[in-house]
Design a protein that fits this description.
- The complex is a heterodimer of chains A (about 200) and B (about 475).
- Chain A is built from eight helices and seven strands, in the order H-H-E-H-E-E-H-E-H-E-H-E-H-E-H.
- With about 200 residues, chain A is an alpha/beta fold.
- Chain A has one domain: Rossmann fold (3-Layer(aba) Sandwich).
- Chain B has helices spanning about 15-25, 35-40, 45-55, 55-70, 80-95, 110-115, 120-170, 175-180, 185-215, 215-230, 240-245, 250-255, 260-275, 280-290, 290-315, 335-370, 375-385, 395-405, 405-420, 425-435, 440-450, 450-480; one strand at about 100.
- In chain B, helix 9 packs across helix 14 and helix 9 runs antiparallel to helix 16 (about 335-370).
- Chain B is mostly helical.
- The chains are: A alpha/beta (about 200), B mainly alpha (about 475).
- Chains A and B meet through helix 1, helix 4, helix 5, strand 6 and helix 7 of A and helix 2, helix 5, strand 1, helix 9 and helix 12 of B.
């Protein structure tokens, strides 16, 4: 009786709260190329995930809604299907919370072809720490500086070209809420992937 | 995949040397670079240590020696040193790539943000939000106006119509009673769900979504952090706790975002015990709204229990006190679309979840009625209920409450309308019902999230505790002779 009810209740709960257990969701799917989104909560990861996949995901403005991993699909260059994976919040590769542990396990065990590190333009100083860790880890990182419009309002100017030359990875600026720069993300993913694979072959 | 080589020096020579040594000892089949693994080892990451000690067993001792030797050179723990040095690089990068205004501009939203977190202004703001959001909107409008309207409509139009239809087309009395009459699926189950629970839960989720979308929630967390520390939680627990006012089952699930197992247990217990779900809250607010002193007594009593039990649990449960760190999202004007989708998905979850249970409860009560088990259970509960100063009819409400919190609350509402309860009895019932049982759905999630043992232990604590508290409260009202 108890276990029956269990099964009845859980799929719905899972669906509504999007709870996947890390072990389950770490199964890789059908050999698609993978994009993994990482970043602290509330930097617009979900909006970018939605833009890429067209799927609905709860867009939250407080830490704690994305306890789990959501997956979707996107088309890159209108011909190739890629898998998009949204991770829970992450501040550092050295995890403190369950969310961070789930995110890191994914980076450890899955094999992303591109990692989008999405960060808040108003708070570059703190968050670049994680960007450095991701680069150190040898992951194929693209830095997405989001909320560039909000930084602008505060008088903070970010120069992506300088940053790009300093850290040696592609840097894109966006304002996901208004849609600015979102198309650039896909193109950058493609170019970066091409460069990386060509570099590997050469 | 080959990625960019980092061009800037990040760590000092000593750490770089140690890293190189560790890297050479690693047999790498990680997805992350050897450098990253060496760094995590230096920083004392338990998971990585476990993996490496199992896999690179031969070299693990040597690695541990390198780490110890490195640590000997620094006063602070290595994870701190490593992070600090990396942060210097991050700061340098950020300084070179961004230009901030001489005088930091404070936007309007930042000013509001600061006001919400300073105790002097923050506490009144919090009370105002609770008053307008919970009391006025959920309690008075949702559970009062809307429920009145829908309830009356349902009872005057749908119930008589269903009863007549059933009498005409279904010749068997037991089946008539399954669908209609006093405890029928349509006349009771659907009525509770649609006319009582829906408007209350709906209004609550609207309020919660607005609070969530403005970014006020984490600021509230900052504000109450100190109080929560004394009950073994930290500000982070504000989210599941607040969500608990909507649905405790949902909140118990969200409590997994808390950092330590200890916090998760405390939060689960407090959610099961002292946080009324929106259906209970709304109905209790509506019932007691005309009696400010009764309302204050109920709220004060629950707050006392919440803090007391939290404080004692924090004392009894072993484990370190949590630290608090939470990123503050910007304050912003809530987005209508976001509010709509958030409210909609929560409502959808809620109804897919509870409708079957409401129907199940109706069926069980029907079965219980036919077999006489229901009457027997009520008969057993009646002396307990009488003991805390309540009339016989309340026993049925508690039995309902066991199926679902909101079901019991809806039953209380039905009873309240008959006018047999006086103010003191209403307060005692409201308090006991709030404390009493995590409902079936919440209990199942407690098992799933915290394990069978913890869940059962919590339930076994709550059953007697609720009634003892009700008894104490009744006695207190009697002894002091307060007019409510």
């Amino acid at each position: 009786m108890k276990s029956v009810k269990h099964n009845l209740l859980f799929p719905r709960l899972k669906k509504a709260l999007r709870v996947d257990h890390p072990k389950e969701s770490l199964k890789s799917s059908h050999g698609l190329k993978k994009i993994v989104l990482v970043g602290t909560p509330n930097v617009g990861k979900s909006v970018i995930f939605n833009f890429l996949t067209g799927a609905y995901v709860t867009v939250s403005n407080y830490p704690g809604t994305t306890v789990e991993i959501s997956r979707g699909k996107t088309f890159i260059k209108e011909k190739e299907t890629w898998e998009v994976i949204d991770t829970p919040g992450m501040y550092s590769l050295l995890p403190i919370t369950e969310e961070e542990r789930v995110s890191r396990t994914l980076l450890l065990e899955d094999n992303p072809d591109v990692v989008l590190h999405i960060i808040d333009a108003k708070n570059l100083e703190r968050i670049l720490n994680l960007t450095i860790q991701l680069i150190e880890a040898g992951l194929p990182v693209i830095l997405v500086i989001n909320m560039i419009d909000e930084a602008d309002k505060l008088g903070i100017k970010v120069d992506p070209a300088i940053l790009e030359s300093l850290i040696g990875i592609p840097v894109v600026t966006t304002s996901a809420a208004s849609g600015y720069g979102l198309d650039t993300i896909k193109n950058t993913i493609w170019d970066y992937y091409q460069n990386n694979t060509l570099g590997k072959q050469a | 995949m080959e990625a960019a080589v980092f061009k800037l020096p990040v760590y000092d020579l000593l750490i770089e040397k140690s890293l190189l040594k560790i890297e050479n000892l690693l047999i790498n089949n990680f997805n992350l670079s050897k450098r990253a693994i060496a760094l995590l080892l230096l920083q004392g990451d338990e998971e990585i240590h476990k993996i490496v000690s199992a896999r690179d067993r031969g070299n693990y001792e040597a690695i541990e020696r390198i780490i110890a030797d490195t640590q000997a050179n620094y006063k602070e723990p290595l994870y701190f040193v490593v992070n600090l040095q990396r942060q210097h690089t991050a700061t340098r990068l950020s300084d070179q790539a961004t230009s901030a205004p001489e005088e930091p501009r404070h936007s309007f939203s930042e000013k509001i943000s600061r006001l919400t977190m300073r105790p002097v202004t923050g506490v009144p703001i919090l009370l105002l939000v609770l008053y307008c959001g919970l009391y006025k909107f959920v309690g008075i409008f949702g559970a009062g106006t809307l429920v009145d309207y829908l309830e009356t409509g349902y009872e005057n139009i749908i119930n008589p119509w269903v009863n007549r239809l059933v009498e005409i087309y279904i010749p068997w009395v037991p089946v008539q009673e399954l669908l209609a009459k006093d405890y029928g699926i349509i006349t009771l189950g659907f009525r509770y769900a649609l006319a009582i629970v829906l408007p209350i839960v709906g209004t609550f989720f609207i309020v919660f979504s607005i609070i969530e979308d403005t970014g006020y929630l984490p600021r509230m967390a900052m504000l109450v952090d100190r109080v929560f520390k004394s009950i073994g939680l930290n500000g982070r627990a504000v989210i599941p706790m607040t969500l608990g006012f909507g649905c405790d089952a949902m909140a118990t699930m969200v409590s997994r975002t808390l950092e330590t197992a200890r916090e998760r247990i405390i939060a689960t217990l407090l959610l099961a015990l002292a946080i009324p779900c929106s259906a209970q809250l709304g109905i209790i607010l509506a019932i007691l709204s005309g009696k400010p002193r009764a309302l204050a007594l109920w709220a004060g009593f629950l707050l006392l229990i919440f803090l007391l039990v939290g404080y004692l649990t924090a004392r009894l449960l072993p484990g370190a006190r949590p630290s608090f760190y939470m990123e503050l999202p910007p304050m912003r004007r809530p987005n209508l679309r976001n509010i709509y989708t958030k409210t909609y998905t929560r409502m959808q979850w809620y109804f897919l979840e509870i409708m079957p249970l409401f129907i199940l409860a109706s069926v069980l009560i029907w079965l219980g009625n036919i077999t006489g088990i229901f009457q027997q259970l009520v008969a057993w509960l009646t002396p307990v209920v009488n003991c805390i100063g309540l009339p016989d009819a309340i026993a049925q409400v508690f039995l309902f409450g066991f199926f679902r919190r909101d079901y019991g609350a809806a039953g209380l509402y039905d009873l309240y309308k008959t006018g047999i309860l006086n103010s003191a009895q209403l307060v005692v019932t409201a308090a006991t019902l709030t404390l009493f049982v995590p409902c079936i759905a919440q209990f199942i999630i407690m098992i799933k999230e915290r394990g069978l043992k913890t869940a059962v232990a919590i339930a076994l604590f709550i059953f007697p505790f609720a009634f003892i508290s009700g008894y104490a409260l009744n006695w207190l009202i009697f002894i002091t002779g307060v007019k409510l």
